[in-house]
Amino acid sequence: MIVPRAPSGIPGLDAVIEGGIPTNSTIALRAEPSNPTEHFQQQFIAEGLKLGSPAVYCCLSRPVANVIRSMKHQGFDVLESVANDQLIFLDCYSMQKRTSAMGVDQGVQKKIISVTEVDDERMLQDGLASAVERIPNLKGLRAVCESVPGTLTARSAIEVMRWGRKAFGDLRAFETITIHTFPVGIRDELFTMMAHDFDAIFEIKAESSSDRITYYLNIQKMRMTSLPHKLIELHSENSLLSVQTTQKIT
Predict the structure, then answer these.
(1) Which is the CATH superfamily of the domain at 21-212?
(2) Residue spans per domain, the chain
(3) Under a CB-based contact definition with an 8 Å cutoff, are residues 199 and 169 in contact?
(4) C-alpha to C-alpha distance for 177 and 27, rounded to whole angstroms
(5) pTM score
(6) Which segments of 51-137 does DSSP mark as H helices, in order?
C-alpha cells in the first residue's frame, strides 16, 4: 500500500522515515522549549509553505514576534505568507489582543488571531475555525501547537495532555499533519497513556558533556512506517537542524 507522505523539513530525516511523514497524522512531540525544538517546528512549517501548503501556528511558549524573528534568522521570511493568509498565527501566549500585536508590523498585526483565555477551549476552536475560513486552499495543511506552559493554565497534567486535542483534531478533515508539543516534565507513564492514540510520537532530548550539548530525536512510533531502532543525532548550523548520525538504541 502506497502511503501519501509529506517532507519533514529536516534534511536527512525523510530517508529514515520512508520518505516523509504520512499525511493526516497527529504527532506528539515531547520536548522542552529550546532552540532545537523551535527550529524543528519552524522548519516543518517552512517546508510546507515552500511546497504551497498552508499552515497554522499556535503560539503558547512565546509571542508571535519571536517566532517570526526566529524564522527569519533561519532564512525563512514569512511576512508574505502571513499577508496572503498562507500562514495563520494563533496567539494563545499574550493573553491580551493589544499585546499580541507588539513587535510586529501593522500588516501582520491585523492577521493575528488572538486567543485571550487559554483554559477556554471554545475560544481555541473559534480561532481555528477563523483560520480555516481565511485560508484559500486547505490542501496539505500543516499545524504546530507549542506546549502549554504551567504559567498559562491552572489545569492538571492530564488536562494539559488533553488540551487542544479536540480542536486540532477537527483539522483532520483536511489531511492535516499536526505537531502537538508536550513538556518533558510530564511523567513517563502519563505521557505514554495519553499519547497512546497519536499517530506518531517524537522526543527531542539533550545530553550534556563537559564541552557541549548534543540533541537527539527519538521516534517511538509512526503510523504506516517501519522505524529503525535508532536514536537520531541532530546537528545545527546557521540555526538549521539536520540529521547528523543515527545510532542503535541499546
Answers:
(1) P-loop containing nucleotide triphosphate hydrolases (3.40.50.300)
(2) 21-212
(3) no
(4) 8
(5) 0.93
(6) 64-73, 79-83, 97-100, 106-109, 121-134
